[in-house]
Amino acid sequence: MTKLAWGGGGGGIPHRDTPENNPDTPFEFTAENLKRIDAIISMYPEGHKQAATIPVLDVTQRQHGWLPISVAEVLEVPPMRIYEVATFYTMFPRQPVDKYHIQICTTTPCMLCNSDSILEAIQNKLGIKVGGMTSDKMFSLIEINDNYYTCPKDIDQIIDELKAGNGPLPGPRNGRFSCEPAGGLTSLCEPPPGPGFGIRADL
C-alpha cells in the first residue's frame, strides 16, 4: 500500500502510537546493518550514542522503508528522543509505506517550475489522489529512494520501469544538471575570455 505523499512527511508532526508502529512493534536489524551501526556509533564519544540518531535512522529506513519506534532501543535512548527527530524531519516516514514511496516537492520554486504537472501525471498514471495508496502494494519526483526525476513526460516510463523491477537511472531526463534554469541558460553562454581581458594596454 504505497502512499503518494504531498510534500513528504511521516504521518503528521505529532507521533501517535498505531497498531503498525508502537513500542511493541518488532524490528531487528540485519547483521550487516548492525555492523554499520556499530561503526557509526564508534565515531562519537562514549556515552553520546544519541548523537548518532540521524545516521542510525537513515540505516533503519533503508532497511525497513519506514521507522518503527523500537529503533530507540539500539541507541539506548528514551523513545521521546527518537520522536523529536523523526517528527521534525519529513523524510522519515513513521508508518508503513509501500515499495516505492513517491513524494512531490511543493516548495514555491518547484511549484513555479510546474511541479503540479508532475503530481497530475502521477495521479493519472496510478489512479490515486494525494494520500492514497495503490492496491498492488507497489506505490506509496520525483524523489524515489534518494534519486530525482523531474520531467512530467517521463512519468509513465518511470513508473512502468519500477513496476517491472528495473530501477531507472537517477537524475533528470532533460539533460539539466545542478541549478540550471528551466528555460535554458540566460548568461555565461560563451567560454570566458582569457587572461588580460578588460585590462588597459598601458598597465
Automatic annotation (TrEMBL):
Q: Which InterPro entries match?
A: NuoE-like, NuoE_dom, NuoE_N, Thioredoxin-like_sf
Which co-factors does it depend on?
A: [2Fe-2S] cluster
For this UniProt record, give its keywords in alphabetical order, as a comma-separated list.
Answer: 2Fe-2S, Iron, Iron-sulfur, Metal-binding
Question: Where is the sequence biased in composition, kind Gly residues?
Answer: 1-13
Q: For this protein, what reaction is catalysed?
A: a ubiquinone + NADH + 5 H(+)(in) = a ubiquinol + NAD(+) + 4 H(+)(out)
Please list which residues make up the signal peptide.
Answer: none
Coiled-coil intervals: none
Entry's CDD domains?
Answer: TRX_Fd_NuoE (cd03064)
Pfam families found in the cross-reference section: 2Fe-2S_thioredx
Gene Ontology terms, MF aspect? 2 iron, 2 sulfur cluster binding; metal ion binding; NADH dehydrogenase (ubiquinone) activity; NADH dehydrogenase activity
Q: Where is this region: Disordered?
A: 1-25
A GO BP entry is: mitochondrial electron transport, NADH to ubiquinone
List the SUPFAM superfamilies.
Thioredoxin-like
Listed under GO cellular component are: mitochondrion
* Family (UniProt): Belongs to the complex I 24 kDa subunit family.
Q: What does this protein do?
A: Core subunit of the mitochondrial membrane respiratory chain NADH dehydrogenase (Complex I) which catalyzes electron transfer from NADH through the respiratory chain, using ubiquinone as an electron acceptor. Parts of the peripheral arm of the enzyme, where the electrons from NADH are accepted by flavin mononucleotide (FMN) and then passed along a chain of iron-sulfur clusters by electron tunnelling to the final acceptor ubiquinone. Contains one iron-sulfur cluster.
Q: What quaternary arrangement does the UniProt entry report?
A: Core subunit of respiratory chain NADH dehydrogenase (Complex I) which is composed of 45 different subunits. This is a component of the flavoprotein-sulfur (FP) fragment of the enzyme.
Question: What is the name of the protein in this document?
Answer: NADH dehydrogenase [ubiquinone] flavoprotein 2, mitochondrial
Instruction: Give the gene that encodes this protein.
Output: NDUFV2
